[in-house]
Amino acid sequence: MVRPGPVSRRAEAVLRTIVCDVRRNEPMSRHVYLRIGGPADLLVVPRSLGELREAVGFLFEEGVPFWVIGHGSNLLVGDRGVRGVVVKVGSRCGRVRFGQRGAHAEAGAGLPSVARAAAGLGFAGLEFAAGIPGSVAGAVVMNAGAHGGSMADVVESVAVSTPRGWRVLRAKDLSFGYRSSTLQGQPWVVNWVKLALRPDSPASVQARMEANLARRRASQPIGAASCGCMFKNPAGDHAGRLIEAAGCKGMSVGGARVSAIHANFIVNEGGATASDVLTLAERVRDLSRARSGIPLDLEVGLLGEF
């Protein structure tokens, strides 16, 4: 039996007047790519940016603890679940509009979908993002990137909900770094992102995008249950190379295994727990550092009780 969470019945009742989709003791394994995770005390899934802003505003005002997730592509949730409220910003908050200079994408828009739509309309700049799973907001928060490009290259502005209200941040305010931004250290919730893209022929953009996708398909375990790259690349090197050199490819703990295709991916082969994944990640990190002397930092986000 799942123990009651700290969310009051009053807070839950108010949230249900704002958002129709509110679920108590919802298994988070249903909401992350790795298919692992215990129950959230309360999962709130807004159907629009209006619902998102109102729900988040209420939670800020009442001091109710909450966490925000996107599509769950780079997230490991603890086996014991998440205390408090989890707000899932999904595809229902994912409308995208294109203008003359780029795109205005709501937080829950899928990054690969936006990249494909941009290519079809003859906008360049998002070719690197075609195969990166997850939401636009999540990609901005962690400055996702691949193939020499990143979100820092295309973000013009971001609208966020904060404990003091709604505000718009320019790219220069976000202090983008390697897989980082100031959004990671603030209690802010992304609402929408404005992307500055440049015109090009659709055929040229799509050709570059397809080349990137082909490289990804050849080098990563596409279709496997994973949370993407487990570790950040250290300066001047690649985590996958260091892990493979340490002999960790194929290593397993329970239902979790280091991918035989790309050593920086840990896949759920069926029945893996968060404990399996973390134990395996620690072994990999220790063995890699023992061989190379280079420490590896987690890239995947951790949420909940482990």
Task: Kindly describe this structure.
The protein has 306 residues and is α+β, with helices and mostly antiparallel strands. 27% of the residues lie in helices and 26% in strands. The protein has a five-stranded antiparallel β-sheet with strand order 6-7-13-11-12. Strand 16 and strand 17 (256-258) form a beta hairpin.
Strand content: 25-35%
Shape: globular
Structural class determined from secondary elements: alpha+beta
Return Rg in Å: 20 Å
Taking the sheet with the most strands, its summary is:
5 strands, antiparallel
Biggest sheet strand order reads 6-7-13-11-12
User: Which quaternary structure do these chains form?
Assistant: single chain
What order do the SSEs take from the amino end to the carboxyl end, as H and E? Answer: HEEHEEEEEHEHEEEEEEHEHEEEHE
> Terminal Cα separation, in Å?
18 Å
Number of helices: 7
Number of strands: 19
Query: Mean of residue pLDDT?
Result: 95
Low-confidence stretches: none
Percent helix among the residues? 25-40%
Task: Give the helix/strand layout.
Blueprint: H1 9-18, E1 22-27, E2 39-44, H2 49-62, E3 66-69, E4 75-77, E5 82-88, E6 96-98, E7 102-106, H3 111-120, E8 123-124, H4 136-141, E9 145-146, E10 149-150, E11 155-162, E12 165-170, E13 189-196, E14 198-199, H5 202-219, E15 226-229, H6 239-245, E16 252-253, E17 256-258, E18 265-268, H7 274-292, E19 301-303
Parallel strand pairs: 2-5, 3-5, 4-19
Antiparallel strand pairs: 1-2, 6-7, 7-13, 8-14, 9-10, 11-12, 11-13, 15-18, 16-17, 17-18
Helix pairs in contact: 1-2, 6-7
